[in-house]
Amino acid sequence: MRARIDPTRCQGYGICVEVAPKHFTYDDWGFVQAVQIDADGEHHAAVQHALEQCPIHAIRWIDSPPTAQAKDPSTGNPVRPVG
Ligand code: SF4
Question: Which domains are seen in the chain, by residue range?
């Protein structure tokens, strides 16, 4: 499961980099990009948190969440991909 930033929406606030630095970083031009690595298991919550904290909702899941990770660990509510 991976996350993607919509470059047409991202305003470069960098909140995602602060919230989930293993999954979001700045490229050589200073634009934020999602690191395309496995975000399952323990990493899922960090990426989901970044997704929720993005003020303009520029982050989306690009694969379906695995069944075991389909619930928000803090609320127990189902997590749905944005899109
Ligand atoms: S938090 Fe959202 S707007 Fe800010 S850099 Fe990340 S993706 Fe872009």
Answer: 3-69 (3.30.70.20)
If DSSP states are collapsed to H, E and C, what string results for 6-70? CCCCCCCCCHHHHHCCCCEEECCCCCEEECCCCCCCHHHHHHHHHHHHCCCCCEEECCCCCHHHC
What whole-number distance in Å separates Cα of residue 19 and Cα of residue 34?
12
pTM: 0.70
Predicted confidence (pLDDT) per residue in 21-38, tens digit: 988 999 899 888 887 666
Share above pLDDT 90 across residues of the chain, in percent, rounded to a whole number = 36
CA of 82 to the centre of ligand 1 (A): 15
Q: Determine the residue of 53, 59, 62 to mutate for testing ligand 1's pocket, defined as the one with the most ligand atoms within 8 A of the Cβ atom.
A: 59
